[in-house]
Specification:
Layout: H1 4-20, H2 43-53, H3 64-69, H4 73-92, E1 99-102, E2 106-112, E3 118-124, E4 130-135
Antiparallel strand pairs: 1-2, 2-3, 3-4
Protein name: Curli production assembly/transport component CsgF
Pfam family, one: CsgF
Keywords: Signal
Amino acid sequence: MKQHIPRTIGTLLGSLLLSVGAHATELVYTPVNPSFGGSPLNGAWLLGNAQAQNKKKDPDALDRSSLLGNQSALDRFTSQLESRVLGDLLNGVKDGKTGMVTTDDFVVRVYNGDAGMLIVEIKDRLTGEISEIIVGQN
């Protein structure tokens, strides 16, 4: 009888310990991809990783480096200067200044219209087409 008591106590303690440690929770799958219910904040990160790994190039796509590579330093300087002058002209509008800028391709005229409206008139020198942008005050 003495041998059966330690074996019985050991079996009871072992089963007690096993039953106490058998707690578990549910596993819940949370998708990462926003297309499958994941957070929309992951979209840009996933797209950036996919594009970084993409080694294929579109044969019909324009190569931006070739567009800039054909310009001389003088052409680039002229383009930057025209952008700066147009920017200064449009920035002066908030102070009530008007004016006109003529480039190789366009004539841009900024003036005040009736009832406090601002008018930006863009004329294509090659075709003679005129576009007007009218900004009204509310």
